[in-house]
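[recover] target loaded
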């Protein structure tokens, strides 16, 4: 006899365990339900259990034997890194320093006193935290991509690191763009560094295969992720499982609004928002039954699938750290832990995200090489190209990365961007919260007399954004420069306002106000600044992320402005599976006076 039950695997695990079902020789029988806590696990009421399982008493005695045989200790919270081979006699720290300083020559950066001080400051934090192997692994992955013509970019705060810029991991000079390293890594930060890598989506699988070849097939896997029952889905699933006609579940589900701004909708919140839903719940028996059951299931795990980007690389076979399984939709191995539990188990997550715009860029560059024998180094194109800025000012944004769509196009035509900083700011501002600042940003760009600072100290970090708070980093600099926070406090401040938990927000507001006053400003000033912060709290865009993505946006605009036929061809090929998108791109080609011809057996290549 076997039984379906859960065993405690840590001392602080407080869940109650419920024995639900037994299975004997393929014959399912419903068992009575009883509960026991972890504290009582070894003291099961044997008499009660034997009464429940009187026809198969060995189910009880065998369960006790198995429990006594289990002796599992999980070592949580310490990191293990992939087994990255370096020369004998060298440490990981020495190797990272050597490659970093080689970067000055490789990418043509001057070894000024400021640059060297920044590098030494960053290296000390990386060494003290023991993260050198992680940086070496990421550097190796991106070197492989570059050597094999796979276009990449980086997401998140890592672009604030001078070390990663010199290694070639990032492609934005953090000193030139005034990006803080501490937003990525600082002495107080308890969590590990997280370098999110974006690859051309048609070559992402090559990168995962490279990792498997280098570290071993049994040491690399994509991360599993658990899909949960959201409000609408829970209603549909319950209605279907109870045998109601499709249109009943569909009608109730459609009354529940979609979540917004990264916050999922709940059934309770929907009932408060939608009077029709509340009325149906009150007046219709079937709706009440479905919603009551759906509320119990809401948030429960529904299925396992594959994380869009997460990959783990272990120094020993993965099963020594995490349970694994086959991907339900294919044969590849994935972890049974989600990304948070994987990190608890000590494995750092590597993000391999596929981005279509990078495939389009790479394809257009190869077409230019094929047709004109011109080699374009997309990382070395001029950032002051007149044609590129004219294209944006004219609103020819169809097919560009992060800069297309009616709203963004309208603002770009009004803004008439003239520098990469304008593009970065638009990438950051065109979000649900800070969008209201866009008209003011445009006014101040065209009339510098309107530029003003609430406090003269703010000019230091708001100079390029005409005195406006544009990035999440601007909030942190306000806290540091005006309220006397250190980076540990600023990090806690960022997390508190990001989560919007009322209790934490109130505590932070009080602390922030006290800091502002003790650093020479008034309570009125603190109140005014806090009100400016409010639209940014959940949606503030990281400045380093905006600089990385703004660069890719500029690169796509550069290719469209200077090599329009090749760029539009590359989009058509990349979008060839989407009939609606193809139609949009063909219309854009007509607007650009580029004819799109039908296939020709003598002239056509494999793509468009």
């Amino acid at each position: 006899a076997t039984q379906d039950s859960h065993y405690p695997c840590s001392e602080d695990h407080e869940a109650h365990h419920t024995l639900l079902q037994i299975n004997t020789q393929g014959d399912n029988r419903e068992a009575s339900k009883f509960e026991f806590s972890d504290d009582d696990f070894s003291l099961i009421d044997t008499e009660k259990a034997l009464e429940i399982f009187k026809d198969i008493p060995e189910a009880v005695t065998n369960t006790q034997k198995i429990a006594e045989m289990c002796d599992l200790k999980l070592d949580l919270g310490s990191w293990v890194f992939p087994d990255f081979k370096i020369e004998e006699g060298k440490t990981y720290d020495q190797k990272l320093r050597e490659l970093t300083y080689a970067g000055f020559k490789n990418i043509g950066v001057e070894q000024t006193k400021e640059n060297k001080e920044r590098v030494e400051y960053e290296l000390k934090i990386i060494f003290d935290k023991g993260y050198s192997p992680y940086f070496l692994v990421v550097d190796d992955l991106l070197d492989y991509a570059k050597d094999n013509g796979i276009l990449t970019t980086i997401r998140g705060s890592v672009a604030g690191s001078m070390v990663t810029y010199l290694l070639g991991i990032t492609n934005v000079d953090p000193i030139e763009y005034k990006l803080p390293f501490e937003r990525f890594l600082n002495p107080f930060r308890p969590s590990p560094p997280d370098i999110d890598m974006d690859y051309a989506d048609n070559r992402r699988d090559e990168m995962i295969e490279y990792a498997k070849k280098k570290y071993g097939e049994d040491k690399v896997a994509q991360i599993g992720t658990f899909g949960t029952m959201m409000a609408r889905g829970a209603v549909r699933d319950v209605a279907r499982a109870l045998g109601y006609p499709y249109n009943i579940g569909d009608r109730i589900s459609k009354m529940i609004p979609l979540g917004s701004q990264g916050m999922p909708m709940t059934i309770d919140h929907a009932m408060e928002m939608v009077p029709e839903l509340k009325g149906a719940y009150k007046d219709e028996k079937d709706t009440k039954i479905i919603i009551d059951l759906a509320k119990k299931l809401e948030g429960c795990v529904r299925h396992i699938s594959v994380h869009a980007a997460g990959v783990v690389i272990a120094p020993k076979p993965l099963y020594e750290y995490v349970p694994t399984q086959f991907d339900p939709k294919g044969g590849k191995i994935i972890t049974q832990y989600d990304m948070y539990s994987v990190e608890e188990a000590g494995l750092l997550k590597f993000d391999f995200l596929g981005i279509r715009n990078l495939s389009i860029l790479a394809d257009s560059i190869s077409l230019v090489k094929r047709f004109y024998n011109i080699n374009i180094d997309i990382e070395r194109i001029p950032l002051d190209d007149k044609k590129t800025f004219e294209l944006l000012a004219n609103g020819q944004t169809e097919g560009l990365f992060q800069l297309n769509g009616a709203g963004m196009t309208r603002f770009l035509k009004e803004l008439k961007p003239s520098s990469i900083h304008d593009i970065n700011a638009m990438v950051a501002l065109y979000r649900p919260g800070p969008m209201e600042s866009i008209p003011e940003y445009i006014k101040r760009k065209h009339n510098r007399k309107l530029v003003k600072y609430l406090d003269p100290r703010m000019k230091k970090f708001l100079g390029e954004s005409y005195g406006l708070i544009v990035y999440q980093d601007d909030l942190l600099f306000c806290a540091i420069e005006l309220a006397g926070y250190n980076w540990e406090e600023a990090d806690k401040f960022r997390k508190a306002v990001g989560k919007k938990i009322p209790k934490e927000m109130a505590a932070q507001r009080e602390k922030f106000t006290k800091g502002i006053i003790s650093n020479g400003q008034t309570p009125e000033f603190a109140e005014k600044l806090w009100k400016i912060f409010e639209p940014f709290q959940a949606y503030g865009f990281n400045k380093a992320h905006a600089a990385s993505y703004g660069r890719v946006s500029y690169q796509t605009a550069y290719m469209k402005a200077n090599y329009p036929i090749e760029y539009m061809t590359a989009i058509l090929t990349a979008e060839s599976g989407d009939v609606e998108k193809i139609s949009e791109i063909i219309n854009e080609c007509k607007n650009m006076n580029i004819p799109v011809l039908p296939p020709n057996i003598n002239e056509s290549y494999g793509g468009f």
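[recover] notes: The mean pLDDT is 86.
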